[in-house]
Amino acid sequence: MAWLTPLNPPQTDWRGKSVWIIGASSGIGRATASALHAQGAQVTVSARSTEALDAFVQAHPGSTALALDCTDRAAVHACAHDIRARALPDCVLYCAGHYQAMRASAMDVDDMLRHVQVNFEGALYVLEALLPALRARGSGHVALVSSVAGYRGLPNSLAYGPTKAALTNLAETLFLDLKPNGIGVSVINPGFVETPLTAGNRFAMPGLITPAQAAQAILKGWAQGRFEIHFPKRFTWWMKALRIVPNRWYFFLVRKAVL
What is the extent of the structural domain holding 218? Predict the structure, then answer.
């Protein structure tokens, strides 16, 4: 049946494939880079921390590190140029992220704009630098790490949630535009993952998983040709269900559970 056909070409054999991961110094990005390296991919890792990148390369022989501030448009283009000179990526994963809990009672516009720059604008710079070449080749895969925090408005997510909602919408539009060009697109919506970004949370995080578990869920989603990859399912299915709850009920349930 057509509706059972994978939305993206399944990616099961990573041997010799070129992968660029932006935001690979820790957490989900680093764990996914490690998992892909173990499956034979030629991995290039980027982040601001040169020490973390050098440590990754030492632990993963054959991988490449390119330090990068994803909010620097010119630097993103220069980095992409260096990568294209060696091999146009078969897959690019944008995993850079910034998170600070924020409520309207302590609104910090400067930090909100920092969220926009790291979580969203950086992804646009990467797309700007790579999409023309990917479209010309007629193959490749683009993956954006969003979050279930982008499904609906949540307490403490005044700065973070809107940027993730934007990423999800961007991925949906990219899928529609790029499928005719032979380019796959996926959006990755994690729940709570044990990373430096979540370490500062002062509340219980239901369904908390490790970065290694997150990486395996991502690779499984790619192997199944999924557009949206969300995990852990025991938590994210509840979050997805809340997307269709009427506003009055949604606000009541969230306030009762969280506030």
Answer: 2-258
Question: Residue 70: what residue type?
Answer: C
Task: Quote the CA–CA distance of 13 and 176 in Å, as a whole number.
Answer: 25
Q: Are 201 and 191 in contact (CB under 8 A)?
A: no
CATH at residue 106:
3.40.50.720
Let me know if 160 is a catalytic residue: yes
Strand-strand pairing, 91-94 and 141-145: parallel
The catalytically annotated residue of 94, 125, 160, 250 is: 160
From 26-40, 197-211, 241-255, the region with the lowest mean pLDDT: 197-211
One-letter amino acid of 176? L
Residue 70 contacts residue 125 (beta carbons within 8 Å): yes
Query: Strands 184-190 and 228-231, how do they pair?
Result: parallel
Task: Render pLDDT for 151-178 as a digit per residue (tens, 0 to 9).
Answer: 999 999 999 999 999 999 999 999 999 9
* SS3 category, 192: coil
Question: Is-contact 26 215, C-beta < 8 A?
Answer: no
* 3-state SS, residue 42: strand
Per the structure, how many domains does the chain have? 1
Q: What are the E-state strand segments in 23-111? A: 42-46, 64-65, 91-94
> What's the pLDDT tens digit per position in 195-212?
776 666 666 666 678 999
Distance of alpha carbon 223 from alpha carbon 12, whole angstroms: 5
